[in-house]
Each structure stands twice: as structure tokens, then as C-alpha cells.
Design brief:
Layout (H helix, E strand, L loop, with lengths): L1 H9 L7 E5 L4 H17 L2 E8 L6 H15 L2 E6 L2 H8 L3 H20 L3 E3 L4 H14 L12 E2 L2 E2 L7 H11 L15 H16 L3 H30 E4 L2 E5 H5 L3 H16 L7 H12 L4 E6 L2 E6 L2 E5 L10 E4 L3 E4 L5 E7 L9 E5 L7 E4 L6 E2 L8 E2 H7 L4 H4 L4 E3 L3 E4 L3 E2 L11 E6 L10
Parallel strand pairs: 1-2, 1-4, 2-3, 4-6
Antiparallel strand pairs: 5-6, 7-8, 8-11, 9-10, 10-11, 12-16, 13-14, 14-22, 15-22, 16-19, 17-18, 19-20, 20-21
Helix pairs in contact: 2-7, 4-5, 6-8, 6-9, 9-11, 11-12
Length: about 450
Amino acid sequence: MHDAFRRNLVHLVTPGDRVLVALSGGADSVALLHLLHGLAPAFSFSLHAAHLDHGMRPESPRDADFVGKLCAELEISLTVERIDIPALAEDRRMGMEEAGREARRDFLRRTAAEQGCRVISLGHHRGDQVETFLHRLIRGTALPGLAAMRPKSGPFIRPLLSFSREQILKYLAERGLTHIEDASNRDLAFTRNRIRHELIPLLQTFNPRAEEHLARLSGRIALEEDCWRAEEDRLLSALGRPREGEIRLDRAGLAALHPALGARVIRLALEKVRGDLRGITAVHIEDVGKMVTGGRSQAEIHLPGAWAACRYESLWLRQAPPPTPVPFVFTIPGPGEYSLPDGRRLLVELVEEPRGETLAAVEFDASAVDFPLAVRSFRPGDRFRPAGMEGRKKLKDFFIDARIEREFRGRLPLVEAGEILWVAGVRRCSGRLPAHGKTVLRLTISPSHSSTIRL
């Protein structure tokens, strides 16, 4: 085992690293600490250990005392911390397993930063890998989730991942090394324990090597996922528009992909937006995919830690829905420059000759428009006489025809003088055109990257 562990370590640490070892006192972590301690001189890295007391068992002070003595014997520095996991789970409204997992990760990352450790070594072994595989399979993960744990992910390394529990116990017995048993590992109230003590033994009645085969399958999936990830990254770059904590994906391009590949791109985009995929299942990804290919021009789904919406030509992903625009109204007493709520500027001028209109500038016969003007947000029931169209139209219907997303309708400034003269930056009203030789009222809205309306 020692030689195989050494081969694993070659790809996981570099000379000069300071490695933080997650040390519970159980068989896996004790074997991990001893193996790393024995190889540290040859690999030129140093060690620091970290022990978290979960506050779930009355004997937990015994565990802290055990790991303290172990580290003292090996002359390895140690950080010990206690967290009340039951209280944390209640406060965050999550299960004990999930709360414990989050608390451990937070503690290890924080301790690594405090101790200058670039690498965090965990004691997961082959049995843990199979438990993770089966746990995710039962919960309904997508195929990438069945890759389970990797030997290296971010700062975390798992040098024992290819070894069975039996191999680890044999290693400890041959060297006369003691460890402690956590009674909570036998509590069948926890899903992982039921998988470990009931499901895996049941599978082994069909095939004694079931654990080995499932671990190998997970490894093959991981290898193929690494290959697929390169294609997912390429497509996300081609179809996606990341911006200020959100991503827009070209809806037609996404819908044109094979459903399996489209699902992978959606999954990767959600991971980019959220930072992780905890709580996201294959069903969530499928629901987003169905929305993309569905016929509704505007639809949305609330996901765990994310919001997904189809808005005409795009799929819009955010951690939370955009904030509801605050209604506004203010008066324009005369020519000048005025600030708009969305950060843009409105320039109001009286000029001698027309200069030409664009989406950002419109001109009216000054004698046909009286000050003060009003600038306000959209109100239900608003009507408008769009230039180039006959008669009046509900502004809501105009927005739909112009494919203006509902989140931006309330932010559009409407310039009004008895009627809506201009949906600023979008369309002017019909009539009141400037006449030759008469003073021209010119309205110009300055562009702003942060407030560009998506049409």
C-alpha cells in the first residue's frame, strides 16, 4: 500500500507544499496522516492537521484528546475547533449530513488559509467513493454527478481514493497503529450509513466485487467527463454572454444542440452562476431544457440557489430574479440635462434646425409641445401612438411586439406631454414632427452600458 500511495501522491503535491490533513481520528485519517508523515521528507512538503468536533456526541472530547496525542507523537502542529452541527443544521434549515459537510469544508478552508496550506488532504477511500456514487444515483443526479469524487478538486486531494477500507485497516494493523471509531457512523438514521451498512452489502450478495466494479465505473465516467468538459466550455463560450453575475445563452443555438449536450451546457452555465451545483438535480436541468425548447416567448423557473428564464431569444440565468423596478416620475421644466433613474442622462434642447433622429434622439415641433414635460415609468393601461403605425396601441402590447423583456419595461423612461411622446431609446410617437423654419425640441438619451435595453 505504501508504494501505491506514493505513486498516487506524485500527481497531488509539489515540493514546498504545506499540506493540511483532515484528521478525525478514524482509521482512514490516521492512516493518511502516517503515510503523509512518512513521505513528507522525500516529497519536500510539510504538514499541519485539523480536527473538527461536531458537537454531536458526548465522547467527542475523547476524539480531540486522541488526535492531540497522535500529532504530538509525530511532531505535527494541530488546529482543533468545535462547532454545534445540530444547531447549525436547524439555523440553516438543512439536514445534519449536509450541515456537517458544509461546516467541515468551511473549517478546513479557513484553517488552510490561516496556516498557509495550499493543499488539503482528505481521507476518502474507495468505499466512500462508491457511497457517493450510489447516494447521487438514488437522488437523481445527472451523469456528471456519477463521476463522484476526484483525486484532486480545487485545493482538496484524496490520496486514499483507490484503496479499500480493508486495505487501510490492514495497513494500520501491520504497524500497530490505533484509531477511534465514531459511533455515529453506525447510525442508520443517516442516508450514507444505510448505503454503507445495508445497500452495499446487499449488492455484494449479487457480486462480491460490486464495490470495486462501481468504483471503476465512477472512474471511467470521470475520465469521459473530463473529455466532455472541453466541449462544454467551447459551446458555453460560443453561446453565452456572462455579465455581472449572470449568463445569457443564445436560445436558438442551445435548442439546436443534441439534448444531452444542451443539458451539459445548461449545467455548466448554472455552475458558473451559482459557484457550485449543490441542490441541482437532473430533473432541474431537464426542466430548464424543456423551457428552452418550449413555445413560450417568456417563461421562468425558480431553482435551488438560481433563477432561469427564457426571454425571447435568450436563456437568462441568475442566482436570483432581477429586482423589481421602482416606479418613478419627475418633471422637466425646460431645456437642460437631467439624470434618469437607470443611470442615463436626458438632454433637452431647443435648436434652430433638425439634426436627424436615431433610437437615442428624437425631434418635435417645439410649438406643438408645451413645458413642463413629465418623465415616468410604465403604468398598466398606458396607451401609445407609435410612429409608423395607425392609431393607438396598448403600451404592453407594443412592448410584446418590440420583444422588450418584462424586467426592463418598468425601467424605460416615458417622456410625456399630454400623451406619451417617446419611449426613450425605443420609439417616438407619431405626429408633432418638426417643421421647416420652426424651433425644434430635441431629446437625446445618453447610452449607458449598465442600462442597455435588450430588444
